[in-house]
Structure formats: C-alpha cells, structure tokens
Amino acid sequence: MKELFNTLKIKPKNSKLYEIAFTHSSYVHEHNKKQDYERLEFLGDKVLDLSISDYLYNNFSKKEGDMTKIRANYVCENACFQYAKDLNFSEYIKVGNGEEADGGRYKKVILADIFESFCGAMYLDLGFEKTRSVILSIIVPYIENPEIEFLSDYKSALQEYVQTTGKTIHYEITHESGPSNHKRFEVALKVDGILYGTGSGTSKKEAEQEAAKDALGRRAK
User: Fold this and answer.
1) Whole-model pTM?
2) Cβ contact 211:188 at 8 Å
3) Biggest distance spanned by C-alpha atoms of the chain
4) Residue 168 DSSP symbol
5) Which of the following is catalytic: 41, 99, 116, 214?
6) Average pLDDT of the chain?
7) Is 116 one of the catalytic residues?
C-alpha cells in the first residue's frame, strides 16, 4: 500500500485504519478478524459527498438541482469503481478464498465501497482538510474532462459484465467526418484488444454508448 500512499502524497499516522478499509467481510470471516470496511464505508460516503459538494459550491455558479445532478455523477457507484480501479485498489484488497475465486477483488460493488471506506479512513487519520484535498486531486480531473460520464446505462452495464474478470474495456475513435459544427464519430469497442462492438454518433459519448449497446447485443445472442 506504500505505493498508493506515495501516489496520493499521504503520510499515514494510523496504518491500521487503512488495513481495515481494504478488508472485505469474507476475509474477516475466514481469518477471525474483528473488523471489515463497512463502518468506514458509511463514514467515507458522507465525507466524499461533502468534499464534492463543497467543491461544486465554490467553483460553479449553478442552481441546487444542477449541482445535485453533477455531484451524483461523481459520487455514484460507477464513479467510485473507476477511481478505485485507476488507483489499482484491487492489488490491496483482502477478500476470502471464495470471494477471490469469484473475482471479488475486481467486482464493481466491492471496489466502489472500498473507495468510500478509504475516504473514511483518511478522514479519521488525517482530518477533513487533507482528506478533501486528496479526494479532489483524484476526482477533479474527471470533472474537468467533459468526455467522462459515469451515469451512462450501456457503458455501465457492459463494464459490470466484464469487470469480474479484471479485463479492460477500451473505446477507440476509428473515424471522424463532417464539419466542425456537425461532426460524426465512429467508435470501436475492444476488451483486452479484442473487438466487441462498434457505434457511431454526433458526439464521442453517443458513439461510445452505441458501441457498448452493440457489444451487449452481441453477447445476448
């Protein structure tokens, strides 16, 4: 976990908190441990909400409803799963043998929960200001990238389907056409380098959604 701390520029005071934050209930049951990550997850969920709410309030002149929608996009399960995956959380998770065999360390729900529990551990260990700073260092780059949308149905459904195997989905723009004010994009969707689907649309997001829809449709046949 030292590499993770270095990446996030964290100097833990109580390393035990982080060990608990990465411990799944299946591991606790198999090894007669006392605590899993669930209590820290409960706390971290609220710390995450407050951190993003504070950021949006101070950086966007938007109405309450609009800020609520934006916040939901960056604190939802899909988003937390992505943050955890990008930070290689699966390398540090402790799961029981049965959960391990079932791909538990790559499951969306577990990775998303552990991102929240990690936020809870930071809060208890380092206080709110430092925790907020770390959370924003992780999430603001996603907020500043208009191409990122976490609450998209087909992409989320496909991600959930392949994530248990630890495989990687990649969307590749294969062609662009039309004038700048009316472009059309064509996208190829690959899973570990293998073509799974294609799609097109008037935006990159739309084309990616169509590619994910195509891939899910082929899987259902």
Assistant:
1) 0.69
2) yes
3) 64
4) -
5) 116
6) 89
7) yes
